[in-house]
Specification:
alpha/beta; 11 helices; single chain; 5 strands; 233 residues; globular
Amino acid sequence: IFAITDAARDGATFWWDRIDDLAPHVARDRWRGFETACGLPECYRRGQPRAFGPLRPLRQWLPAAHAGRWPAHLEPVLSQLEEETGRRTVHRAMTFDELATLTTLPGVEVGVHTMSHPVLPLLEDSELESEIGQSYGALRERSHAVVPVLAIPFGLYDERVLRIAHRAGMRTSLTLCADTQDPEPAPYALSRYCVTIDDTCARLVLRVSGLPRFFRTWSAPPASYPELPSPTS
């Protein structure tokens, strides 16, 4: 289990769960008004692939403009929409007490997912190291079942993130492996695969084998690191 330690203090909810659970119950015009009230630029509406759905513009803009954190000045805007619809997400972070109970079970360990789940490449060195190091320290104060492994928020990283994470005590960092990325592992990094209900055993074996990436590199060279969120990605 990888814990976001700021949220674990009181079992806080996350903005991505809140908008995911709200969106199906909000009319299209009202949702557009909500985006405008948040300050979403029009270029994010025009530039996102439609295949990713109506939440894609907001999901790309928040990481790009606010390093992946829901800004405090927009909390009233989101809370108002929740009150209008009567919809509040039931998904939340586990508390430290709940994590402590869970780690009494055999084989359960806790890793680092930073203090606030930001886009790490957008942070200055000192803040980046603090996000990782303080999160690791907060977990170690409360449990002996803590491993020095970082699950990188949003799967967004670069060489500097991996280097500073190692300096902050991480033995390795779990990236988010995409078919367009270099199949060769970077120093201090391991590929992390998302497994969904649609993944059969055969499909997962194929993905982990690296063959899809291998064949894609014939047509275009792989990127070393994931692209950061933008109006057109």
